From TrEMBL:
GO terms for molecular function: alcohol dehydrogenase (NADP+) activity; butanol dehydrogenase (NAD+) activity; metal ion binding; methylglyoxal reductase (NADPH) (acetol producing) activity. Keywords: Oxidoreductase. InterPro entries: ADH_Fe/GldA, ADH_Fe_C, ADH_Fe_CS, BDH-like. Belongs to the iron-containing alcohol dehydrogenase family. The lineage of its organism: Bacteria, Pseudomonadati, Pseudomonadota, Gammaproteobacteria, Pasteurellales. This is NADP-dependent alcohol dehydrogenase. It comes from Bisgaardia hudsonensis. Coiled coil: none annotated. Residues 9-187 form the Alcohol dehydrogenase iron-type/glycerol dehydrogenase GldA domain.
């Protein structure tokens, strides 16, 4: 196991009916900007529940900014950051999924980058994203979240991904300043999700675990065993939830598993390989394919292409997650594990090939050009996944 420091300051408040605790969690005199997405928070009543909890005590001033898109748009977020300045906001409360939470982290991060006209400087904000958010070192506006879709882990990490349609780019950032102060995880809030979003969430969490696990062994027993457990839970609960969408036990387990999949815990002290995510972000940015669906397309082909360099972990995955008899020939064992992974995704109705989302060979050149433009030319645990490797992965996925 490699050396590491682990720090995670996010207070998790888990359980049904816990939105009421906002009255204790948000400072009593705060000027609060509630951020939300395209309308689900209003339709489902969650927004009203949040506002009522904030009004239950204290002297909070409450403002709203809605319309943050799935794959949150840079320009929309800059408009929200202008509002933070104009209204002198000192607390942002994100109500939604990964897109609203990531977007709110970015609003918080850039809200001090004011130009001579008192507006947020678009250039400085773009530069911040290009520098992975690392150039902001001042304090930022505090942030809390009410999670409505289990998937990304954004509620308990300090990262985000922002889309810029004009520039054809979807780029990640991370900065410890934007760890949420708290996140409320009410599994009952997920009951209104369309099935598509439920299965997307299961798949996204699954691939988050895989990208921190499927590299090479460093004898990190805690991280490996935690990861294998999370994968097995996602397989079990994924199969349960498509047949029993109202199963609250399953909703609870999926929600906490997705948070645990990307709160940093299983990734400490181990090599990581985020190739599927980096290729996936380009596919989303170019073709508007849901984040999770890009991952279920790329991951199986990536496992096949990188079979040799990931051999030991693939065998461990086959044995410990899929219970495949390790006495058989190694190649067969690995092929079986990859096929079972694909079958799991397909059972959830997720695509596993580019053709499943109507993309063909012509898309590959564009995706590769975008990867090059964004400097994604040395991906993987050995930094060995250059553009040729990415191309071969995509060709296997046709
Ligand atoms: O916009 P509204 O109307 O709210 O509808 C949303 C959206 O259309 C809807 N929804 C959310 N909660 C709902 C609901 N509908 C009914 N009932 C509810 N309770 O679901 C749709 C998808 O929401 P979104 O937030 O986009 O989904 P998700 O949580 O999967 O987030 C995806 C984004 O997170 C990024 C992705 O790249 C993508 O931009 N990621 C963030 C990560 C992180 N911060 O660590 C890591 C991930 O790998 C990922 O890249
Ligand atoms: Zn993801």
């Amino acid at each position: 196991m490699n050396n590491f420091q682990y720090y995670n300051p996010v207070r998790i408040v888990f359980g049904e009916g816990q939105i009421k605790t906002l009255s204790e969690l948000v400072p009593e005199k705060a000027r609060v900007l509630i951020t939300y997405g395209g309308g689900s928070a209003q339709r489902t009543g969650t927004l009203d529940e949040v506002k009522n909890a904030l009004k239950a005590n204290g002297e909070r001033e409450i403002f709203e900014f809605g319309g943050i898109e799935p794959n949150p748009e840079f320009n929309t977020l800059l408009n929200a950051a202008d509002k933070v300045q104009e209204l002198n906001i000192d607390f942002i409360l994100a109500v939604g999924g990964g897109s609203v939470i990531d977007g709110s982290k970015f609003i918080s991060l850039v809200s001090g980058l004011v130009d001579e006209n008192g507006r947020i400087s678009r250039d400085k904000a773009w530069e911040t994203l290009l520098q992975y958010g690392s150039n902001v070192t001042d304090s930022v506006v505090d942030l809390g979240t009410v999670l409505t879709i289990p998937a990304t882990g954004s509620e308990m990490n300090s990262g985000g991904v922002i889309n810029n349609t004009e520039r054809k780019a979807k780029l990640p950032f991370g900065n410890p300043l934007v760890y949420p102060k708290f996140s409320i995880l009410d599994p009952a809030k997920t009951l209104t999700l369309p099935e598509r979003q439920v299965v997307n969430g299961v798949a996204d969490a699954f691939v988050h675990v895989m990208e921190q696990y499927l590299t090479y062994p460093v004898n990190a027993k805690v991280q490996d065993a935690f990861s294998e457990s999370l994968l097995k839970i996602l397989i079990d609960e994924g199969n349960t939830i498509i047949n029993e969408p109202n199963n609250m036990d399953s909703r609870k387990n999926i929600m906490w598993t997705a948070t645990m999949a990307l709160n940093g815990l299983i990734g400490v002290g181990v090599p990581q390989d985020w190739t599927a995510h980096m290729i996936g972000h380009e596919i989303t940015s170019l073709y508007k394919i849901d984040h999770a669906r890009t991952l279920t397309i790329v991951l199986p082909s990536l496992m096949r292409e990188l079979k040799n360099s990931k051999k030991e972990k693939l065998l461990q995955y086959a044995h410990n997650v899929w219970n495949i008899d390790s006495q058989e020939n190694d190649d067969l064992v690995i092929d079986k594990a990859i096929s079972l992974t694909e079958a799991f995704f397909q059972k959830l109705g997720l695509p596993i090939k580019l053709s499943d989302v109507d993309l063909n060979e012509t898309a590959i050149d564009l995706i590769i050009t975008q990867l090059e433009m964004h400097g994604m030319v040395k991906l993987g645990e050995h930094k060995g996944n250059d553009l040729d490797v990415s191309r071969r992965i995509l060709q296997r996925a046709l």
